[in-house]
Amino acid sequence: KVFQGILMLDMGKSRPQFEILRLWYHECKRVFADRLVNDQDRNWFDDLLKERLIKDFDTKYEDVASGDMLVYGDFMVPNADPKMYEYIDNVEKMVLILQEYLEDYNALSTAQMKLVLFLDAVSHVTRISRVMRQPLGNALLLGVGGSGRQSLTRLAAHMAEYDLFQIELSKNYGVSEWREDLKNMLLKAGLQNKSIVFLFSDTQIKAESFLEDINNILNSGDVPNIYALEDLDNIYTAMKPVVMDLGQPPTKTNLFGAFTKRVKINIHTVICMSPIGEVFRARLRMFPALINCCTIDWFSEWPDEALESVAKTFLHEIPGLEDGQVEGIIGGLVSTCVVILQTVTDASKQYL
C-alpha cells in the first residue's frame, strides 16, 4: 500500500530525494498511523518515522517537510485530465478550492450540505479522496454520529466526479430490496464501467447479512447467487470483447472473472461505523474484510479550532448578530459553545 501510494506520483519527471522521502513519509502515515487508535500511538509512530529518516537517509524531517500538516491530493486543478497527485503546500488555497467544490455540489444537489471546512475536516477530505483514487480503494471511517463522515465522503466523491450510491431505508426495506439495490450497483460498475462510491453506515444495518454481502464485495467483487440467468447472459455478452482483447478464451469463467475484477476496481466502498460497544468488535471479527480490505480513518474529537469555526459560522447567520457592533457578544457566545461541548464530552467519558 505504501509503494502503491508512492507510485501515484507523476514519475514522468525527475524528482529530488527530499520529494520522494516526503511522499514516503506521508504514505506511511496514511497506511499505518491512521490505523492506530490514540494520539499516544500516533506520536510514537511519528517519532519512529523521523528516526528512520535520520538513520536510513541522513535527513531530518524539517528538510523534507515544513509544518505538521502534510497533505497530498489530485484535486487542486478542477477538471484536470489526467489528475496529478501532488504535494499541497498552500493550505489556504486548498481550503478555498474545497469551498468551491462544496458550492458546486450544493448547486447540483437537492440535498444541501452546510459544512464548515476547518483544517481537521479538510484533512479527512484529502484522506478519503486519496483512497478513492486508488484501484481497490475502500475506506472504513470510524467515529461517532455527527462527526462529518458521510458529508465529507459525499464531497470527496463529487471532487473525484464519481457517482455516489447509498441505500434508502424505509419501513418495508428488507433483504430482497437490499440485494436488488446491490445487484443494480454491481451491474452498473461492471457493465457500464463506471466508478461508484458505495456509502454505507452502521445505522443502515437491518440484518447482519448486509455486512456479509459487503464483506463478499470487498473480498471478491461478487455476492453469491445475486444474478438471475438473464443478468448472467448480459454479463457474458458485454465482457466477451474485453476478454478476447486480453487474448483469453471467452469461457464463462473468464468472462465472469473479468466482470468481477472490473467491479472490484470501480466500486469504492466507504463504511461509516461507530467504534463504541461490543457489537462493533464482534462485527469486525465476523467480517474481517472490513479491516483487511479497507483503509481506516479515525474521526477523533474535534479540536478547539474546529469548534470555534463551526460556532462562528452558524452564529453569524442568526438575524441581529451579523452586525459588527456585536462582535464581542459573538466572541463570548463562541467561547461558551466550546466550553459546553467540551464539558459534555468530558462528562460522557466519566459515565463510560
Describe this structure in words.
- With 352 residues, the protein is of the alpha/beta class.
- The chain contains 15 helices and 7 strands.
- It has helices spanning 2-6, 17-31, 39-57, 61-64, 91-108, 119-132, 149-160, 175-191, 209-220, 229-245, 252-266, 278-286, 289-292, 304-315, 327-351; strands at 72-73, 86-87, 139-142, 163-165, 196-201, 267-273, 295-298.
- The strands form 2 sheets. A 5-stranded parallel β-sheet has the order 4-5-6-3-7.
- The longest helix has 25 residues, at 327-351.
- The two termini are 36 Å apart.
Topology overview:
Blueprint: H1 2-6, H2 17-31, H3 39-57, H4 61-64, E1 72-73, E2 86-87, H5 91-108, H6 119-132, E3 139-142, H7 149-160, E4 163-165, H8 175-191, E5 196-201, H9 209-220, H10 229-245, H11 252-266, E6 267-273, H12 278-286, H13 289-292, E7 295-298, H14 304-315, H15 327-351
Parallel strand pairs: 3-6, 3-7, 4-5, 5-6
Antiparallel strand pairs: 1-2
Helix pairs in contact: 2-3, 6-7, 8-11, 10-11, 14-15
Question: Characteristics of this structure?
Answer:
352 residues, alpha/beta, five-stranded parallel sheet, two-stranded antiparallel ribbon, 15 helices, globular
What's this, in brief?
The protein is of the alpha/beta class and 352 residues long. Helices cover 56% and strands 8% of the residues. The protein has helices spanning 2-6, 17-31, 39-57, 61-64, 91-108, 119-132, 149-160, 175-191, 209-220, 229-245, 252-266, 278-286, 289-292, 304-315, 327-351; strands at 72-73, 86-87, 139-142, 163-165, 196-201, 267-273, 295-298.
